[in-house]
């Protein structure tokens, strides 16, 4: 009764409740909206924005379906590029087109046809909300009038001609192109790792803040930046180390993090050290003079040494993590240049550590401590970084279930036999599977929100390091992170990071079903979708595993992975007819996309097609609407039997 009384405030009469039932029943009969899945973007903002604009080829598919052989391939290409980049493409077309009014007329009719098609999955109300104020009425009229109706053809023609004659054609085309982009995708899912490697993570975050509907399942690199923002010094060092390793300081500079103290310290401490192991990896288009490259290497080494000291401090505070063997500065014979790991001696590449006291190797020097205080302050006061992290918190979680799909970034910790592994996330508090992922999410939020008895803020802040490199972290799930070994040891055998059981067993349909059952994922065609580990397409690895139950869509968005994977990433599109996996080749540039009309070359693989077109009624949203309809019918019963009284407005 209490709930029905509250519901009656929104629907005070039988007529109001009946109208809403009719509306909801009608919505459930519409085709399912298109979902778009991306993973491991790693700062590649240009490629990300292009994939967002072309909806992983979904818009090109619509253009081909609508126009077929009616227009030439070159015209389809131009039309697609116009939809992706309307402002820039218009300028080029106007400079070349001889009869611009005729081009306007033809193009506007084509765009209206495309817009009508992509809007057909939505109610008029939802479409109306996506329209720009300046042209809302005009676009709505054009979308719902048929040119095949002789009485309306002249009406539509006059609207188009008037748009052109009043000099509003450019603005109208830009507006309707943006509406097409907006309606082509109903929901965007990002399966983690927006940050690191590429130069534009901040641009991606700014883009997402404006995007209509999206969610994220946090990745290990996102967690690293979240930890840095929360004030975890080891995370701060790791963030800076990765930026220096890939000579990518654009995001750091955009966030206003002052690196002058680090540069000054590095020159003083490592001025005579060639720092060969720390020379940055220069990606294509990253031109760096020799002097800057050497300075970057010194900064890289300086922050790496401090990182291992800061990690040692946190690991020492938490013996329950069982990571003491990763405090490797304690296992170096500094005179002989030897590091002992698991009882075996390994030669160091170099043993030049001017800031290390062999009697207390993990203690920060006075200068290092002063530097860390400054860097800590820079990260803690950066308003733009905190705004982006708050966005990740409000749109994100460790896992999500959407329309029978279980989404997470990396793994679910498993035992050797494939059963869910029980992991201690706080002294005395242990979870597995769904409860583990949920409570890790709560721990992460505890680092930013008011402290709780269950997860104190100080512990939650430290825990970011475990999530980054802890053996049982669902965001890492390896035997160790061999960062120290890769920098300082010669023997490549020490670089090996043994993957956890999830990665060893995920090809098994039985194991995937066990995980899906544990997360209570319903539906005949249910899947796990994740990223994290690049799929080596060049070596024949298939992103579809476990008989179609698992889809791994990290194909290497980041340029750093292109040689390794042979491609530039996978994206997944789930529309009303089924799943399509899109394999992308490297994106050249936005300029090429506009001038040469070079779309990302992609290969589409149909994963699963439905026997019937999926409707909203078949989705999670449909289940919500069915529940709302049932509640409204209860309200109608209450009105009609005098249990509640109608209230006339």
Strand order of the largest sheet: 7-3-2-1-15-16-17
Which class best fits the helix and strand makeup? alpha/beta
Biggest sheet overview: 7 strands, mixed
Shape: globular
The fraction of residues in strands falls at 5-15%
Give the rounded overall mean pLDDT.
90
Estimated helix fraction? 40-55%
Uncertain segments are none
- Count of helix runs: 27
Blueprint (SSEs and pairs):
Elements: H1 2-10, H2 14-28, E1 35-38, H3 45-54, H4 58-67, H5 73-84, H6 86-96, H7 100-118, H8 124-130, H9 136-143, H10 150-165, H11 169-184, E2 187-190, H12 201-210, E3 214-217, H13 220-230, H14 233-245, H15 250-254, H16 260-270, H17 290-317, E4 332-333, E5 338-341, E6 344-347, H18 366-381, H19 383-395, E7 396-397, E8 399-402, E9 405-408, E10 423-426, E11 429-431, H20 433-446, H21 457-469, H22 483-488, H23 501-505, H24 509-518, E12 527-530, E13 544-545, E14 550-552, H25 562-565, E15 570-575, E16 578-584, H26 590-595, E17 602-609, H27 620-640
Parallel strand pairs: 1-2, 2-3, 3-7, 9-12, 12-14
Antiparallel strand pairs: 1-15, 4-5, 5-6, 8-9, 10-11, 13-14, 15-16, 16-17
Helix pairs in contact: 2-27, 4-5, 5-6, 7-11, 13-14, 13-19, 13-21, 14-17, 16-17, 20-21
